Amino acid sequence: MVVSRFSQLFALQLCVSLFCVLFASLRAAEVDVQLVEISGKHYFRVQGLPKINTDQLSKFFAVYVGDATEPMLGTYQWRGGGVAFVPRFPLSTGLDYQVRFSASLKRPELDGKRFTFSVARSGKAVAAEVSAVYPSADLLPENLLKFYIYFSKPMKRGEAYRHIQLLHGERVVEDAFLELGEELWDGQQKRFTLFVHPGRIKRGVKPNEDKGPALERGREYTLKIGSDWSGADGATLEKPFVKRFRVADPDHEQPQPHQWKIVSPAKGSKEPLQLTFIEPLDYAMLSRVLVIYDGLGKEVEGRVAISNYETKWSFTPEKPWSAGFHSLDVAVNLEDRCGNSIARPFEVKMQERNAAKPSTTIAIQFRVK
Amino acid sequence: MFFSWVRLICATACMLALLPPTLVSAGHGLETGKPNLRHAGPLAFGPDGVLFVGDSLNAAVYAIDTKDTTDSSTELAPVNIEGVNKKIADMVGSSPAETVINDMVVNPKSGSVYLSVARGRGPDSIPLIFKVDNKDRVSEFSLGKVEFAHAKFDNAPKSGRDRRGRNPRMNAITDIQFNSGKVIVAGLSNEEFASKLRVFDFPFDGAMSDTSIEVYHGAHGGLETRSPVQTFITYENNVLAAYTCTPLVQIPVGDLDGEKTMGKTIAELGNRNKPLDMIVYNKEGQDYLLLSNSSRGVMKMKLSMSDIEEVDAIKERVGGGGTAGLSYETMKQFEGVVQLDKFDAAHAVMLFATDSGMNLKTVALP
């Protein structure tokens, strides 16, 4: 039994030795450098190096972006007889990555050798487009506060203000928008919030800044979004987008929920609850800040639709309406297009300031019969 | 008996090994683990090398122990790196155009510089923290296993519709400061035009006050109630906040109690300008404010509480794009400064934006 086990061990050692000799002779010839992809993840594989500790390997070779002087972050691992350099971050398309060998390797023929790789784009990038801009009307108040720009695909952060212009005829209206270092995107980067510069919004009596207001009543303007704005995948917009609009009287009125027209649905149906406002309200907030509760105080789940230039709101429940009183809770920070909220107008003179802390919601009762 | 003890020790060791890493508690209420940071935005240093990181996508502030508390009482070597953004881009295997430096701060405990970085500009960009030590070595500060805590804003979706889907409402964080046990965060929403200063006690205990600030804006001749604070600093238990076009406003930290408050506009520094960053320092017994701007360079202003208290609050329109209140001089030697922080008693570290890239330099305080 002992002899038998000894024989097995001896045979195994012999095989390993033969394998090593064979492998070493392959390594002695030259190194083989490859960029390997497994399930979308890349690593650089170098075969034919002497077996040394992974923490010493960075002295032998490193990976660089193009002609960079600083090596990329990553880890070295021995894998299947070769060395894998696993980049710390995913490789990007459109860049060259170089595996460079250095003089410290006891392989003088490799000193200074560079092997260049690039990553092919998987599939063709599809250009994004502007899918909607709100407010949707083409007649907008002189003291308009904001636009929401919706894109069909995620966009790149950090270049928004370069691509957006307000034009009056051919003339660019300078400094029309509030530019923030932290651009105002949603989490998917498909919706961009653009505030008109508060200093360029016409106030109650007269313009407040030397350059005058950004928008003036009776004039026509164009909101232009340039086509060189990059989507997150690098493809620029398919075409420029323009929204033409005329400017009407300013709106200093606060939204008045008690003036909203409510059409209650029938019990047992899945008809929508319909609200009609007396002025267009903030598209984004309308999607979010109106919540319906049934008679037991439980939130009614359903789907919101906004139409008629943001003057109509309808709510279609997932389940048929139950009979009885329901409550429509409205957040008092709901704004119109000019930043006038239910709680306060956009522009408050100092002496009119109200220090009282308002409640956060108001409730509108409606009955399902 | 011996084997019983061995079994007990082994069992205890196994149980400890199985405990989630975030249950191991450290100082300042921090726990060991991996912070789920989605965006590394504004930075500030707190006590004992704790770094605060603003994360707009998570609507949260993270406190991360850098363990970087090397004694900085000896003279520090100045930092000087040309093309620091290119260097970081090289390290992360990307291009400078796709590697964004969001903020820069100096760790007062060690003199090392910390940078918040985004690798990529899409929604899946990777948030990173980089460190530059006093030998100009740039390294990634790993967030893989750190001692951290986080405090979230009250930004929970109110409706089941939002809870099920993606809530598009975000709170963008514009700046963070730490002052006397409190983390103060400036930000605004991407929907309603609401600008807030939020205050968290540190160590985080779940409490937060949320104050709307009203300011009088001399260049615009009205209450600019909800304009966002672009950058701010604390000085003698006051917030000195700079707004677009460019009022400088004093708000006592004690007033940030969740009620609406009115800031005192102490200077009007001119319109068509965006303030970027600021520091307070003392030179030869005199306090100064140094403020970098998008189009009006770096401003230096003498500062004292008596001046702030004595200057008349600006309540009237300042015409002609002009200035009013506390006076300042423009430091023409500093061009393109986008970030600045105090390095030591006599120096600041500045991040300069140039045509060829971003340069990190230590400069003498003017």
Tell me about this structure.
The complex is a heterodimer of chains A (369) and B (366). The radius of gyration of chain A is 33 Å and the shape is elongated. The longest helix of chain A is centred in the first third of the chain and has 28 residues, at 2-29. Chain A has three domains: 25-118, Immunoglobulin-like (Sandwich); 130-248, Sandwich (Immunoglobulin-like), CATH 2.60.40.1220; 257-347 and 358-368, Immunoglobulin-like (Sandwich), CATH 2.60.40.1220. In chain A, the strands form six sheets. A five-stranded mixed β-sheet of chain A has the order 9-15-14-11-12. Chain A has a four-stranded antiparallel β-sheet with strand order 1-2-5-4, with no helix packed on it. A four-stranded antiparallel β-sheet of chain A has the order 16-17-20-19, with no helix packed on it. Chain A contains three helices and 22 strands. Chain A starts with a helix and ends with a strand. In chain A, strand 4 and strand 5 form a beta hairpin. Chain A is mostly beta strands and 369 residues long. In chain B, strands 1-10-4-3-2 form a five-stranded antiparallel β-sheet, with no helix packed on it. In chain B, strands 11-12-13-14-20 form a five-stranded mixed β-sheet, with no helix packed on it. Chain B has four helices and 29 strands. Residues 14-24 of chain B have low confidence and may be disordered. The radius of gyration of chain B is 22 Å and the shape is globular. With 366 residues, chain B is mainly beta. At the A-B interface, strand 3, strand 13 and strand 19 of A face helix 2, helix 3, strand 11, strand 15 and strand 16 of B.
